[in-house]
Amino acid sequence: MDKPTHLVECETMLIGRHSHLAVPRTRREGGLLDRSAYILLSRIEIEGPMSIGQLSEAFGLDPSTLNRQTSAMLRAGLVERIADPEAGIARKFRITEEGELRLRQERSKNISALEKILADWSPEEVTTFAAYLRRFNTDIERLTGRPWPRS
Protein backbone atom coordinates (compact mmCIF):
# COMPACT_ATOMS: atom_id res chain seq x y z
CA MET A 1 0.00 0.00 0.00
CA ASP A 2 1.26 3.48 -0.84
CA LYS A 3 2.15 5.83 1.94
CA PRO A 4 0.31 9.17 1.78
CA THR A 5 3.59 10.91 0.87
CA HIS A 6 3.96 8.58 -2.12
CA LEU A 7 0.53 9.65 -3.28
CA VAL A 8 1.43 13.34 -2.87
CA GLU A 9 4.68 12.77 -4.82
CA CYS A 10 2.76 11.20 -7.69
CA GLU A 11 0.18 13.98 -7.82
CA THR A 12 2.77 16.80 -7.64
CA MET A 13 4.73 15.07 -10.43
CA LEU A 14 1.56 15.03 -12.52
CA ILE A 15 0.89 18.71 -11.84
CA GLY A 16 4.37 19.41 -13.20
CA ARG A 17 3.65 17.18 -16.19
CA HIS A 18 0.39 18.93 -16.97
CA SER A 19 2.06 22.34 -16.70
CA HIS A 20 4.86 21.18 -19.00
CA LEU A 21 2.42 19.85 -21.58
CA ALA A 22 0.48 23.13 -21.57
CA VAL A 23 3.58 25.22 -22.40
CA PRO A 24 4.14 24.06 -26.02
CA ARG A 25 0.40 24.35 -26.78
CA THR A 26 0.27 27.85 -25.30
CA ARG A 27 3.32 28.96 -27.27
CA ARG A 28 1.83 27.62 -30.52
CA GLU A 29 -1.31 29.62 -29.76
CA GLY A 30 0.65 32.81 -29.23
CA GLY A 31 1.65 32.36 -25.59
CA LEU A 32 3.09 35.45 -24.01
CA LEU A 33 5.63 34.51 -21.35
CA ASP A 34 7.87 31.60 -20.52
CA ARG A 35 7.71 30.14 -17.03
CA SER A 36 10.77 31.95 -15.65
CA ALA A 37 9.61 35.35 -16.93
CA TYR A 38 6.14 34.77 -15.48
CA ILE A 39 7.53 33.95 -12.04
CA LEU A 40 10.14 36.74 -12.02
CA LEU A 41 7.65 39.35 -13.20
CA SER A 42 5.15 38.17 -10.59
CA ARG A 43 7.73 38.68 -7.84
CA ILE A 44 8.80 42.12 -9.13
CA GLU A 45 5.13 43.08 -9.39
CA ILE A 46 4.63 42.27 -5.71
CA GLU A 47 7.88 43.66 -4.28
CA GLY A 48 8.72 46.45 -6.69
CA PRO A 49 12.12 46.90 -8.35
CA MET A 50 14.68 44.25 -7.41
CA SER A 51 18.40 43.81 -8.00
CA ILE A 52 20.09 40.64 -9.23
CA GLY A 53 21.24 40.06 -5.64
CA GLN A 54 17.72 40.39 -4.28
CA LEU A 55 16.34 38.09 -6.97
CA SER A 56 19.14 35.59 -6.28
CA GLU A 57 18.28 35.58 -2.58
CA ALA A 58 14.53 35.40 -3.22
CA PHE A 59 14.77 32.44 -5.60
CA GLY A 60 17.94 30.71 -4.42
CA LEU A 61 19.35 30.91 -7.93
CA ASP A 62 22.87 31.71 -9.07
CA PRO A 63 23.26 35.32 -10.26
CA SER A 64 24.49 34.06 -13.66
CA THR A 65 21.17 32.25 -14.17
CA LEU A 66 19.27 35.39 -13.25
CA ASN A 67 21.48 37.50 -15.52
CA ARG A 68 20.45 35.29 -18.46
CA GLN A 69 16.79 35.43 -17.52
CA THR A 70 16.69 39.18 -16.90
CA SER A 71 18.67 39.84 -20.10
CA ALA A 72 16.00 37.99 -22.07
CA MET A 73 13.31 39.99 -20.28
CA LEU A 74 15.15 43.25 -21.05
CA ARG A 75 15.39 42.34 -24.76
CA ALA A 76 11.66 41.53 -24.77
CA GLY A 77 10.84 44.90 -23.17
CA LEU A 78 9.32 43.30 -20.07
CA VAL A 79 11.64 45.01 -17.58
CA GLU A 80 13.95 47.99 -17.54
CA ARG A 81 17.04 48.78 -15.49
CA ILE A 82 16.81 51.64 -13.05
CA ALA A 83 19.26 53.11 -10.57
CA ASP A 84 19.14 51.68 -7.07
CA PRO A 85 18.79 54.73 -4.80
CA GLU A 86 20.27 52.78 -1.88
CA ALA A 87 23.33 51.24 -3.58
CA GLY A 88 25.32 53.75 -5.62
CA ILE A 89 26.00 52.31 -9.08
CA ALA A 90 23.87 49.20 -8.55
CA ARG A 91 20.84 48.69 -10.77
CA LYS A 92 17.42 47.21 -10.20
CA PHE A 93 14.89 45.72 -12.56
CA ARG A 94 11.49 47.34 -12.80
CA ILE A 95 8.56 45.91 -14.71
CA THR A 96 7.57 47.95 -17.79
CA GLU A 97 4.06 48.72 -19.02
CA GLU A 98 4.57 45.99 -21.63
CA GLY A 99 5.67 43.58 -18.89
CA GLU A 100 2.61 44.43 -16.79
CA LEU A 101 0.32 43.95 -19.78
CA ARG A 102 1.79 40.58 -20.75
CA LEU A 103 1.81 39.40 -17.13
CA ARG A 104 -1.89 40.31 -16.76
CA GLN A 105 -2.71 38.55 -20.04
CA GLU A 106 -0.78 35.41 -19.08
CA ARG A 107 -2.36 35.35 -15.60
CA SER A 108 -5.79 35.74 -17.18
CA LYS A 109 -5.10 32.73 -19.45
CA ASN A 110 -3.94 30.70 -16.45
CA ILE A 111 -7.02 31.61 -14.42
CA SER A 112 -9.32 30.79 -17.36
CA ALA A 113 -7.68 27.37 -17.68
CA LEU A 114 -8.11 26.75 -13.94
CA GLU A 115 -11.75 27.81 -14.13
CA LYS A 116 -12.32 25.18 -16.85
CA ILE A 117 -10.58 22.49 -14.80
CA LEU A 118 -12.45 23.41 -11.61
CA ALA A 119 -15.83 24.05 -13.27
CA ASP A 120 -17.50 21.11 -11.51
CA TRP A 121 -16.08 21.98 -8.08
CA SER A 122 -18.09 23.90 -5.51
CA PRO A 123 -16.71 27.25 -4.33
CA GLU A 124 -16.04 25.61 -0.96
CA GLU A 125 -14.00 22.83 -2.60
CA VAL A 126 -11.94 25.36 -4.55
CA THR A 127 -11.35 27.41 -1.39
CA THR A 128 -10.29 24.31 0.56
CA PHE A 129 -7.98 23.21 -2.26
CA ALA A 130 -6.41 26.68 -2.39
CA ALA A 131 -5.87 26.59 1.37
CA TYR A 132 -4.09 23.23 1.15
CA LEU A 133 -1.93 24.45 -1.74
CA ARG A 134 -1.03 27.56 0.23
CA ARG A 135 -0.12 25.48 3.28
CA PHE A 136 1.97 23.15 1.11
CA ASN A 137 3.81 26.09 -0.48
CA THR A 138 4.34 27.98 2.78
CA ASP A 139 5.78 24.84 4.40
CA ILE A 140 8.25 24.52 1.51
CA GLU A 141 9.08 28.22 1.85
CA ARG A 142 9.62 27.82 5.60
CA LEU A 143 12.05 24.94 5.02
CA THR A 144 13.98 26.80 2.32
CA GLY A 145 13.88 30.15 4.12
CA ARG A 146 12.50 31.82 0.99
CA PRO A 147 8.93 32.98 1.62
CA TRP A 148 6.80 34.27 -1.22
CA PRO A 149 5.22 37.60 -0.33
CA ARG A 150 1.43 37.30 -0.20
CA SER A 151 -1.31 39.81 0.38
TrEMBL record:
This is MarR family winged helix-turn-helix transcriptional regulator. It comes from the Bacteria. InterPro entries: ArsR-like_HTH, HTH-type_Bedaq_tolerance, HTH_MarR-typ, WH-like_DNA-bd_sf, WH_DNA-bd_sf. It comes from Streptosporangium fragile. CDD domains: HTH_ARSR (cd00090). SUPFAM superfamilies: Winged helix' DNA-binding domain. Residues 1-138 form the HTH marR-type domain. Coiled coil: none annotated. It holds the Pfam family MarR.
